[in-house]
Amino acid sequence: MKPKYQIILEEIRSEILSGTYNVGEQIPTESALQDKYNVSRQTVRKAILELANEGFLRSEKGSGTYVSNQYLTKAGGNTNNRTIGVITTYISDYIFPSIIRGIEGRLNEDNYSLLLASTNNDVAQEKKALEMMLSYGVDGLIVEPTKSNLYNPNIAYYLSFKEQNVPFIMINAYYEELEVPFFCLDDVQSSYLATQELIAMGHTQIGIIAKMDDLQGKYRMKGYIKALGEAKLRFHPEQVLSFNTETKQGLPANLEQFLTANRESLTAIVCYNDEVGLEVVQACKRMNISIPDELSLIGQDNSYIAKNAGIKLTTLTHPQEQMGRDAADWVIKKLQGKKDLRNSNYYQPVLITGETVKELD
To answer: Is the pLDDT higher at 169 or at 307?
Structure first.
């Protein structure tokens, strides 16, 4: 359990970084903080002293305690430390190493260093990552948003970056409630092309598996529905399997239930991504369902999984390294004062034929 002074310290620091308290503003008195946290004056003073040492507060004798921005100088901020922050949902698997490689390659060309954090698609971890970036005083920021299809409680931190004129751009998705530059795959088009391909191969009973707490899932669902509508095929709710970050661990069991329930009707599935496509391959192996003879599959993102899964997935391209490079280039050019930069970009996916789709007779 954290010491009480640490809880006070962290809450006040968060309020400063998120802009609840502005530079030069007086924080509540020691006695007010005592009452709020039900602690001794000594505990409050310990928290204030540590925050003052870190450069977040300054005390004026006989006047009170005020918010300071000296923490930026202590961290090397406001001295052009040539560091770009990068926050992604994950770091070490799937397409993320390629994206980070693209960012790093471009930053190295202009002698910028990279400060990396991941959120595991958890808003509490995103908050910590944003506080770290603000405390450090990064010159710019590249962010893959966390649970981008849900309300985000960390919007105030992004507004703090804006107020401090720290340029930032989002990749893979963005927060719809925030005016922010973004570089994304055209996720609607990706699922649309996947569904269209299956329809062209004679499939009419096509399911989808989609992750619905991220914007990519919402848009990939939209592309699937669009393609069905254009082909005048009926949308069947029972042929949709949705999951989110928390329920992903239970996906293998849910998949088997889904496949069992739809075994007589379903001939093809559009998968949220290649990772889910591989989960379906494994479930089909356990259930003795032959791919593609009994069930056709299309993944998305053209990850290394699509190429090295024992069976080569039919999939759609994702810009990966190029997206990372372009995002880093945007931040660098923004810092150089370049005008008329493109504030949004949708990369167009291309179908890559594999071994998991079969034409129906």
So the answer is: 169
